């Protein structure tokens, strides 16, 4: 169906030009289409590790690729959770989610916040607030980012620039 | 399995893996967008390729995963049986299986070894 055949949801006339809108601001058509990241890797593995991997998958009733993806998710989650600086965790999670183009529910931001959501609910019930202590600094103008965050920020910006058009 | 024991086994196993760079097989992996994105970022930050991170981390994570399984013995036993069927009597040095052997999780005695042992005793 062409736009001419649709009924416009809004029409305006400007200097003898008719301008018709066929979707409102909330329309799905107005949103940019997401294309999730699709990558393939060649995993090098020792022969006996491959047999072990297959036997493990067989015992658990899953495919080899499902098990490999499970292992990847486990070590990546551990890697990001092992970073002591929370600002770096958040920055890396945000850049990864932007690069992956996935929904928020599936995001790394949700993954790293899993434990905190439970604590936040406890705080809401106990203190009628999201946090036990005021989230804003007492002294204005004090930078709360870790030194490591400042260092890694540039590297993440480089990553975004390199993958901006991929 | 106690945390201390698990940790000791993991250390021994990781040492064993690092000792041998022997590579035999290639497997195609297509992780989800979420996993690929984080993998690419870690590779960028660590100045390594995503594939080399996978090569290093998958065996380590497999060990950690296996140590959590209640049927670990069965999994190892079936793997060893397949190795013997394939005429590969002993785990490849540097493999996860070899690491479990070094950590004392199991021991394989070949018929030749048992014969020699009987002669010497």
In a few lines, what is going on in this structure?
Chain A has 166 residues and is mostly helical. Chain A has helices at residues 47-60, 64-81, 86-100, 108-127, 147-162, and strands spanning 10-14, 17-21, 41-45. In chain A, strand 1 (10-14) and strand 2 (17-21) form a beta hairpin.
Q: Name the quaternary structure.
A: heterodimer
Rg of chain B is: 17 Å
- Taken as a percent bin, the fraction of beta residues of chain B is under 5%
How many beta-strand elements of chain A? Answer: 3
Instruction: Kindly report the greatest chain-chain contact and the residue count on each side.
Output: A-B, 53 and 53 residues
The tally of beta strands of chain B, per DSSP, is 1
Main sheet characteristics of chain A: 2 strands, antiparallel
Radius of gyration of chain A, taken over Cα atoms and rounded to an integer in Å: 24 Å
User: Number of helical runs of chain A?
Assistant: 5
Order of helices and strands of chain A: EEEHHHHH
| Proportion of strand residues of chain A | 5-15%
- Indicate the overall shape of chain B: elongated
Strand order of the largest sheet of chain A: 1-2
Unreliable residue runs of chain B: none
Structural class of chain A: mainly alpha
Q: Give the mean pLDDT of chain B.
A: 82
Largest sheet of chain B: none
- Overall form of chain A: extended
What is the first-to-last residue Cα distance of chain B?
36 Å
Helix content of chain B: 55-70%
- Supply the helix-strand structural class of chain B: mainly alpha
